[in-house]
Amino acid sequence: MKRAKGHLKKLQAADTCHLLQAVLQAYLVEPSSCDARISLAGAMHQSSWLAHQIAPYLSDWKVEESIWIRRCLERQLKTFPGDPLAVSALVLSRPEAFFAIARELFPSLVYARSWQDGGLHLRVILCTAWNTSGSSKNWAHRCIELAWKEGAAAFSEVHYVKVISGDERAEHLHGHCQYSSWTTAHLPHGYWVARDSLQELGQLSEVQTALTQLPAWVTS
């Protein structure tokens, strides 16, 4: 509480970070609320705070990973375009703790990519519903897309996408894909919200290879 009051006072004096000011005020009303804490962590990230600056708050709260992750994901599913504050809070999550919760709410693993850049980097897309009967295209609904480096303590990117559609139907997303209504958070900082965007995913053979490189805690 003292930490949050001090930061709010400084922001008010400087008349900066108005979103963060509003979220800090809401947090001070309900400091034990999981939603208030998630919103505060997300607002700090969106205000260009780095992970080590947010960490003292997480330490104060003694965050239980499973509760934090589940609530962040639930907030995506309850908001049509995704919840930007919860997406930004989710980027701070530990990948190994994430997937046990995520696979319950986003059961379909529809894309994977892997590449080497000073270590193995991985990207996956999970969704709540996959493909539509009779369609000639791939359709993934309510998607969560994640990227991280093997062994990392947090994700490098998290995206929530309302719908991803592909050029042709196959067992996985691949190639040119249309993203509709999506929210993105990056480390060390950065986020944005977009309406529609064309994205180039890996070829189907690359997706199939990447799936074999995923850790068991992603696929189980």
Explain this structure to me?
This protein folds into two domains: 2-63, no CATH class; 70-219, no CATH class. The protein is α+β, with helices and mostly antiparallel strands and 220 residues long. Helices cover 42% and strands 28% of the residues. It has helices at residues 2-14, 18-29, 34-46, 51-61, 65-77, 84-90, 95-105, 204-211, 216-219; strands at 108-116, 120-130, 139-149, 157-166, 176-186, 191-200. Strand 2 and strand 3 (139-149) form a beta hairpin. Strands 1-2-3-4-5-6 form a six-stranded antiparallel beta sheet. Helix 1 (2-14) packs antiparallel against helix 2 (18-29) and helix 2 packs antiparallel against helix 3.
Enumerate the strands of the largest sheet in spatial order, edge to edge or round the barrel.
Answer: 1-2-3-4-5-6
Mean pLDDT: 92
Distance, first to last CA: 39 Å
The radius of gyration over CA amounts to: 18 Å
List the helices and strands in order.
Answer: HHHHHHHEEEEEEHH
Number of strands: 6
Q: DSSP helix count?
A: 9
The secondary structure category is alpha+beta
Q: Segments where pLDDT lies below 50 for 5+ residues?
A: none
Question: What keyword list fits this structure?
Answer:
elongated, alpha+beta, 2 domains, 6-stranded antiparallel β-sheet, 9 helices, 220 residues
In short:
By secondary structure, this protein is of the alpha+beta class. The protein is built from nine helices and six strands; from the N terminus they run αααααααββββββαα. α2 packs antiparallel against α3.
Record the SSE blueprint:
Layout: H1 2-14, H2 18-29, H3 34-46, H4 51-61, H5 65-77, H6 84-90, H7 95-105, E1 108-116, E2 120-130, E3 139-149, E4 157-166, E5 176-186, E6 191-200, H8 204-211, H9 216-219
Antiparallel strand pairs: 1-2, 2-3, 3-4, 4-5, 5-6
Helix pairs in contact: 1-2, 2-3, 3-4, 3-6, 5-6, 5-7
